[in-house]
Amino acid sequence: MTVESKHFTLLLPALDEEDALPDLFAEIPFEELESKGWFCNVLLVDGGSKDSTREIAKNLGCEVIEQGPEKGKGAGMRIAFEHFIKTDSNALVMIDADGTYSPNDICKLLDNLEGNDVVIGSRLKGKIENGAMTRFNFIGNHVLSWFATILYGKYTSDLCSGAWAFKRNAIEVMRLNSVRFEIEAEMFANCAIADLDVGFVPIIYRRRIGEPKLGSVRDGASIFRKLIIRRVLPISIN
Fold first, then answer.
1. How far apart are the C-alpha atoms of 122 and 211, rounded to whole Å?
2. Which residues contact 146 (CB under 8 A, 6 or more apart)?
3. In the chain, at which end, N or C, are there fewer CB atoms within 10 A of the end residue's CB?
4. Quick check: pTM over 0.90?
5. Is 53:13 a contact under the CB 8 Å cutoff?
6. Where are the alpha helices (DSSP H) in 37-101?
């Protein structure tokens, strides 16, 4: 039986990830994906790296977008989403470029996209390696996920996960203005407002390579605030 050919964009938000990127790229299961009919274009959006991240990415065959003056993960992802809409890709998968998410879970995310508009990789329902997440962040992620579920009336098992898969229609209805790490909370808010079908799959969460960039208290407060703002002042989604 012939497998239908589809294309997807693998989005890697990155900032100074020269140590993690080569090994991460080597783990991407291109052959397994192609056996399932998925052909992959790797897109790295760079938030102003001072190391050789961009050069390494280009040498590996990645498409590279430089953010420009507006910094932050959220700003980079918004630029990448706008770029994606102009392509012919059927879907978009995003994982962080710091090695915390296993590329082997990409197939699982895409498999579950068949019956959903969006699939989120759940660290809290999966396996968290020793030292990958502090106890403070573990508790904070549970609290924020619980709060988002109550506030929006739509379940999430891991609000702050950086592993997502989207069908094209889901990206098309996203209305985002986040700049930093509150972007995932705003994406979930968009899913709830647009009544998209959201699925969850357990994934592996690993120790990152290099220095962490997420600030526990500051970014947790920004995520909480973004959830409130989008509930009170939702962006119109047509």
1. 23
2. none
3. N
4. yes
5. no
6. 53-59, 73-85
The secondary element (H helix, E strand) that includes residue 43 is strand 38-46
What is the rounded distance in angstroms from the CA atom of residue 167 to the CA atom of residue 179?
23
Reply yes or no on whether the pLDDT at 119 is more than 90. Answer: yes
The pLDDT value recorded for residue 238 is: 47
Q: 12 has which bridge partners? A: 44
pLDDT of residue 69: 83
Residues forming a β-bridge with 166:
92, 118
Contact between 92 and 85 (Cβ < 8 Å) = no
Q: Report d(CA 193, CA 39) in Å as an integer.
A: 31
Take residue 74 and report the two structure tokens written for it.
């959220």
The Cα 156–Cα 7 span in angstroms is 27
Q: What is the pLDDT of residue 208?
A: 84
Distances (CA, A) of 14 to 36, 150, 167: 27, 32, 22
How many CB atoms are closer than 10 A to CB 131? Answer: 9
**In whole angstroms, what is the distance from residue 171 CA to residue 165 CA?**
10
Strand partners, 152: none
